[in-house]
Automatic annotation (TrEMBL):
Pfam family, one: Fer4_9
Alphabetized Gene3D superfamilies for the sequence: 3.30.70.20
Identification of the protein by name: Ferredoxin
4Fe-4S ferredoxin-type domain mapped to chain residues: 1-30, 31-58
PROSITE patterns from the UniProt entry: 4FE4S_FER_2
Lineage of origin: Archaea, Methanobacteriati, Methanobacteriota, Stenosarchaea group, Methanomicrobia
Amino acid sequence: MVAKINPESCASCGSCIGECPACAISLNDDDVSFVIEDKCNDCGVCLDVCVHGAITII
């Protein structure tokens, strides 16, 4: 399982980037967060900090 970020819901606030213990979230060229799937350890911290509800674990 891995976290996925809905680009339409992402507000580019960066809260998930700073909280991810695996450093598995980054910003793309459009300043939208995305998950580096090989680094994601399915911990769910990003779900807890995303106030926009843009992240799911699938």
